[in-house]
Design brief:
This protein is α/β, with parallel strands linked by helices. The protein has helices spanning 3-39, 41-53, 60-70, 121-132, 169-176, 202-212, 277-286, 309-312, 340-370, and strands at residues 110-116, 137-142, 160-163, 187-191, 195-196, 216-221, 242-243, 274-276, 313-323. Strands 1, 2, 3, 4, 5, 6, 7, 8 and 9 form a 9-stranded mixed beta sheet that branches. The protein is globular, with a radius of gyration of 30 Å. The chain crosses the membrane at residues 12-30.
Length: 380
């Protein structure tokens, strides 16, 4: 007889425990909701004020969230400009804005950026004209501090001039070519000053990049006239428009169809790289702020190719250049008459470059070890 009542009491306690648990869970959910409301109260107030000012039209909260993503949380959406350009603007006469250049083909915008010295002005003049004739933008980084010497060129006032003594193009690029600043440009040409461009047309070059689906490229080097060729993959192939790999059966290279990475495929050299907008956004972050010579970058550029580097990185043969190999940064341009001091400077520069290469390798390896979430897309 006593057993059934005990069962009923036990069953009643179970219902009571479940009811209490439900109350606790509900209470926690309500507290969590109030906490979120309190934390977001200032955002909510601002969004409400925006909605009231606009008469309740549109989704004010959505606009607020959009501005927060751009870093412009204190601004109305219509005033926010997320990009810039390198077009020169007049101090007076607003009608002069009509002079802002438009592409002849009105399809792509390009920027040519070079570190230059006055000793190479004649060669840079030829290079710059090629781009300015297509209404592309030219930016000159003056590593020798001499800007006035360029005033005699008719196009000098159309170019952007930036001065910092004894700095490389990678130093300038890291500081003045942030992706947000150059976002208007479809292609970034980050070139050395000692390239012969007699057989190069920038518009045709860009058309080839687009048609071939390339994100990172360089023009091929003329093997007959270039004086400084370090890698066979950069040599012009007269039989093709573009090549993406090189074949070399030497034991030190062993480049074949089975090769998956640099320097056999997916690789360009640092003297004349060309980047798409998307690729440059990645490459800018790869450039190390304090390693100004850029040694080692070429081996890792393929990680910024927006896909398979064996397909997205290439050397364009039909538009080719001559690499004159003039070590003007750190010494005079006439290599046949280098004084002792200049030879010493070049030696110090090369030693510094080699030391930076080792530092870059160490940083890459350390970053790979410490980033548990990163996976090498090219790891076989």
């Amino acid at each position: 007889p006593p057993i059934p009542p005990r069962r009923a009491a036990s069953c009643g306690c179970g219902y009571l425990a479940a009811f209490v648990a439900l109350i606790v869970i509900t209470s926690l959910q309500i507290q969590h909701h109030h906490l979120k409301v309190d934390l977001g109260r200032s955002d909510y107030a601002a969004a409400t004020a925006t909605q009231q000012r606009s008469g309740g039209k549109g989704a004010a909260a959505a606009r607020w969230n959009w501005n927060r993503r751009t870093g412009a949380e204190g601004l109305p959406r219509g005033i926010v400009q997320t990009s810039s350009d390198m077009f020169l603007r007049p101090l007076w006469d607003p009608a002069a804005n009509r002079a802002i250049p438009k592409n002849k083909n009105d399809r792509h915008k390009a920027l040519l950026a070079m570190a230059v010295g006055i000793s190479q002005m004649q060669n840079v003049d030829v290079m710059a004209r090629k781009f300015l004739n297509e209404s592309y933008t030219v930016m000159l980084f003056h590593y020798d501090g001499n800007v006035d010497g360029w005033r005699s060129l008719e196009w000098s006032d159309k170019a952007i001039h930036i001065v910092a003594p004894n700095q490389t193009k990678w130093w300038f690029a890291k500081r003045f070519l942030h992706p947000s600043v150059v976002a208007i440009y479809d292609f970034i040409f980050l070139w050395d000053e000692d390239l012969g461009v007699e057989n190069f047309d920038p518009r045709r070059y860009i058309d080839i990049m687009v048609s071939e689906g390339l994100e990172i490229t360089q023009p091929a080097l003329d093997p007959d006239l270039s004086t400084d060729i370090h890698h066979r993959i950069t040599i012009r192939n007269k039989m093709t428009k573009v090549h993406r790999r090189v074949y070399d059966n030497r034991s030190s290279m062993n480049c074949s169809d089975d090769s998956k990475g640099p320097p056999c495929t997916g690789w360009v050299e640092g003297m004349a790289p060309v980047f798409s907008r998307a690729a440059w956004k990645c490459v800018w972050h790869l450039i190390q702020n304090d390693l100004i010579h850029g040694w080692g970058l070429d081996m890792k550029l393929g990680y910024c190719a927006q896909g398979d580097r064996a397909e997205k990185v290439g050397v364009i043969d039909s538009e080719y250049v001559v690499h004159q190999g003039i070590p003007s940064l750190g010494g005079p341009s006439d290599t046949s008459k280098l004084p002792r001091r200049s030879l010493d400077l070049r030696t110090h520069i090369r030693r510094q470059s080699s030391a930076e290469l080792e530092k870059f390798k160490e940083r890459w390896e350390k970053a790979v070890r410490e980033d548990d979430e990163w996976m090498d897309p090219f790891d076989a």
